[in-house]
Amino acid sequence: MPPATGGGLTGSELRARRGRCGPQTARPASRDVAAEAAAPSPKRSAVSSQRLEAAGRWALLALVTLLSFATRFHRLEEPRHICWDETHFGKMGSYYINRTFFFDVHPPLGKMLIGLAGYLSGYDGTFLFQKPGDKYEHHSYMGMRGFCAFLGSWLIPFAYLTVLDLSKSLPAALLTAALLTFDTGCLTLSQYILLDPILMFFIMAAMLSMVKYNSCADRPFSAPWWFWLTLTGISLAGALGVKFVGLFIILQVGLNTISDLWHLLGDLSLSLVTVGKHLTARILCLIVLPLALYMATFAIHFMVLNKSGPGDGFFSSAFQSRLSGNNLHNASVPEHLAYGSVITVKNFRMAIGYLHSHRHLYPEGIGARQQQVTTYLHKDYNNLWIIKKHNTNSDPLDPSFPVEFVRHGDIIRLEHKETSRNLHSHYHEAPLTRKHYQVTGYGINGTGDSNDFWRIEVVNRKFGNRIKVLRSRIRFIHLVTGCVLGSSGKVLPRWGWEQLEVTCTPYLKETLNSIWNVEDHINPKLPNISLDVLQPSFPEILLESHMVMIRGNNGLKPKDNEFTSKPWHWPINYQGLRFSGINDTDFRVYLLGNPVVWWLNLLSIALYLLSGSVLAIAMQRGAQLPAEVEGLSQVLLRGGGQVLLGWMLHYFPFFLMGRILYFHHYFPAMLFSSMLTGILWDTLLRLCAWSVASSRLARSIHVVGVLSLLLGTAYSFYLFHPLAYGMVGPLAQDPQSPMAGLRWLESWDF
Amino acid sequence: MLGFLKRPIVLTTDINVNVVVLTGVGLLSRLWRLTYPRAVVFDEVYYGQYISFYMKRVFFLDDSGPPFGHMLLALGGYLGGFDGNFVWNRIGAEYSSNVPVWSLRLLPALAGAFSVPMAYQIVSELHFSHCAAMGAALLMLIENALITQSRLMLLESVLIFFNLLAVLSFLKFSNCQKHSPFCLSWWFWLALTGVSCSCAVGIKYMGVFTYLLVLSVAAVHAWHLIGDRTLSNVGAVSASACMAVSVCVFCHLLARAVALLVVPAVLYVLFFYVHLILLYRSGPHDQIMSSAFQASLEGGLSRITQGQPLEVAFGSQVTLKNVFGKPLPCWLHSHQNTYPMIYENGRGSSHQQQVTCYPFKDVNNWWIIKDPGRHQLVVSSPPRPVRHGDVVQLVHGMTTRFLNTHDVAAPLTPHSQEVSCYVDYNISMPAQNLWRLEIVNRESDTDVWKTILSEVRFVHVNTSAILKLSGAHLPDWGFRQLEVVGEKLPRGYHGSTAWNVEEHRYGQSQEQKERELELHSPTQVDFSRNLSFMARFSELQWRMLTLRSDDSEHKYSSTPLEWVTLDTNIAYWLHPRSSAQIHLLGNVVIWASGGLATAVYTLLFLWYLLRRRRQICDLPEDAWQRWVLAGAVCAGGWAVNYLPFFLMEKTLFLYHYLPALSFQILLLPVVLQHVNDHLCRSQLQRNLLSALVVAWCSSACHVSNALRPLTYGDKELSPDELKALRWKNSWDILIRKH
Predict the structure, then answer these.
(1) Name one GO molecular function term (chain B) (predicted).
(2) A598, A663 in Cβ contact below 8 A?
């Protein structure tokens, strides 16, 4: 049976990354051809010239790096006020320095690094970072900006090396480096205290080390192989630790690894044991190591932030008991709920609050005219409820009665402590959610009717049938109507003091809205225990913080009546973001890609798809290509394919996201797209040159083409650099402005 | 030429009795007592109203899917002579005598019945045994959920029918490809694939998943075709032969592209064309559409706007509707009341006359377009049309105050400017009432401001703020109308900043009293305009895709994870007096073994794949090819119809799983036959397996029979019997309390 053609689903062998693996696709010449074609000086007999060449390469790399650092650090201190999201990430850096707990939708690594950079550079965490435009005054902010710019500067050497490795061609690598160096967008995004330079640093580091370990594949288990493999894992952990966008690069490395293993498996010269070793090494370095590092960042995060702060309310009561300064910290309460206990009941969903009632009635026309029941976010005496048996009204705190614990399935009554009304529900529609029933406070001095009876149920019964403070998740089922007590999360109008609506929902699905837990607990008849016993373990905290982050992310919905950035706007550079300043007197910085670079990138993707599919079809048809073209097309299909996959993985998922999106989300994809441009144009020019007979003409076509692209981008950077380095004076709409001629799209508002 | 004189004409036909029998029992199971219950069952209440709209030719908008499915149901009503007069408001309501229940339910039932022989054919076309094919058909026949769903006016069974038809015709096509490409049946099956794909998409957007599956299998086949060297090494010597071969490959690709891409797209548009041709009257959903769309419908807005002057001139009296129209479609409005001096949060206002957006027609919605250079509020003769870039003033018709904005924070959106009608309090706050007119769609249209057609923006001359609907509801002092603001930092075009003229007349009266009378009178003058089909199509499509319904709770909604294990059901109907009831409830045995088969297939496939990579071939090549294709179609069909639901945010129901289930049912016999052919090594094992299969089959039949009362709802059950049927605690079977 022929090994290659079998199976429609096994995929074409064409996109196979390396010729070495599949015997049927092995084209041993290809790599050398490409290398030969790329080498600038063909005389390699002389050792000295080789050394010279190596030195030249190093010098070129140094030059690229230097230029990158120079552009990123130029006028870094300007403007001397908070720009755009610095207000968030600078503030969060300060929180680390002050060790106060906060909540953010992104994982902590990026902000931790910012905090560390600030700490090391002498920033004391006292600046408030209130709103964009606030002056830094004497506060030291350059350490944090410098750190971000430092990481942002490495993007270019990384991209250079990646492309060099993929294409074996210096001009391609140079072109990529130029595109990124001279892109005003990348430049702007690297110059401020933001997560993006850190994220992109890790993404590019992962890409580079992945490409490097791929090229070490002929020497598996050697030191450099291990080094690059480990580095890939570390960078993946870093990328994921900064933003969840890091998942896309993980996906790319994962796909690459799968195809890698697939080829190793198909190599019959390797024993299964060897393949197993390969597999284990990858599991270790690409799964176990990143996971461990990622969890370690969270461990540090929770260790550092041990003081109560603005993030407390997003987390569960049990979580809050960890934070010093929170009223639950070091508190001691009775452990299990008993009849007669005075309690507060908190909704399990974040930002809903405590079950609450007060001496105000529902207004005329809204259900029955009885006392309101709401949820309220703040601590208040009106949050206190007494738990009583449904059928007796005797005072359970009477010392002659024995203590009786509340158990799963008990029928209870909840009496509001301040007003002595019972929690009550009936077949009236709720004020805002019409399909639910109204919940009221009813009865006088605790005497009501059978509509006050609730069955208490414990959802997580691993703590037994008793109800444990903080840890037990409970539901209240209304006995008569069979509905479940919950909060809809909707804000009541002014008659309800803009507190949140409480309803009884007839839909018995378990949702967070209908799960509650007991927070405060007062019962003099029971012994108090320290809440430390109830503190959640690290895995529980980790899980909870991820749930909260995911919910936070889902909560960031775009508003209907606002203009929002759409993913299709991004590659065409439709509209930028104002980093600083609005009016003509302000110092204005505008995040916008260099249009020459971006539109070239866009054109290149189209050209790539065209030329790539022509070549792929030609090869599938079995066309006999000359060796040189064969080599070039391998570079285009494999190297280019790798980078194109990166672009797609970092761009297309945004079309599926429901959360609010911003222009800067495109920048990781833009890095990949610039690499593709570098590889594509170099290869196309080489193909053009090859098709010309005379070798001198061929050489000059290639040189002139690459040079004109380099100079073109450099000149466009000269034109557009005020966007990044700042501009003062009339807006570009004004014909007087020096930028007036550069407003190529009406949607650019700089 | 006269061959028939020499030889007799012979017609030979093969009749596969299996197919005939399967069709027969399929029809029997789906059509038996079809008119029972003669009452609205579950979602019939939803689809029924659209059938009525078709019968009355009233325009509607349904975001649940394209109109083809609704039209098919309506066709049943049309053939049955339904006049559309029935109030679809309550599940369980008895049908009146004018509702042709049988013909309305016939089409879904037929689709469900024909799915049975199609399952047989698909498995045969996958080159599995006749026995396996019979098995697939049998399972399809006795699956209770499929029976329930196809006996009612619902669309899932029709969707499943077209899904299966698409797969079947594609398989027939690719089998033709092997021996006789470009023959008549090759063309027929290829075209049918495209047609049924677009029908599936036209019924529900879910059909896209199966369409994509068929497309990707076709793409893989086409890729192999390109690489097929047998097509190319015919005469590598001669260039012309080589050329001919390339042309041949190109023809193959072109035929596929036309049939699988162009035909479905054209058909999809055609559905909408028919839909819009049929529905020409205005109806309850008009408000969601733009003014231009509404004006193209008979009655409704067009009754008012018919005969309006087209070009807006200085002195025109107009009502201005917001283009975006969210949260509510509304018109620019003002009234005598002023903004409160101090808001509740302590901020101050200009205390000038309120400007709002009002969702109802009202005489206060009228504005007069005034030339800042002239005093008259009438149209000169000849009228001077307003053009893009002109500076205008907007005068409120009833109060003759000027639309104004200034650097005062808006009541609810403090980063935007307040918009008011200017009241001169003689404090140092001058009127700023000049607006520059921008016609947004001037490139596609002219730069003259046209009624209904032009979308315009009003840019404030002094502050360059843009008149915008913020979407917030004003508190009681603003009568809960919508807030209108001046957006200082427009970030790009958005519908909420664009307005269009809806009602329009040339103002004639010089005096305010006369003008008020004029404003109260209806507009007239004769002039008609029509929107092109493509414009109407794209608007309708866009609204369908962007309409968001916020009602997210339902008693019987479920999550995808509950579907596989059948942890949920839907009570469709309960007899008003007895305990007879209909439930959407699957055959537990089939669902469990379907899940098992999918898992077994996946594991076996991976196992074979990895071993083949090491050059160990457990299966002969042709068996492997069959195995892969069957998996791609059946397991793939299940996966593409099931997994996407995990990403969806809308309310989900058990019936969303049925298309996936129908593919899973096809997979079951495939896996069983594979186990029998390749994994059972001895005759004893094979016998054992056969015995097991027979036992399993009869248990499936038994379960199907046991659940039959809940499927057809034709039998009264005692509470004890009902309790006995509640096999899972999560099943909600209705038991009457006496």
Answers:
(1) dolichyl-phosphate-mannose-protein mannosyltransferase activity
(2) no
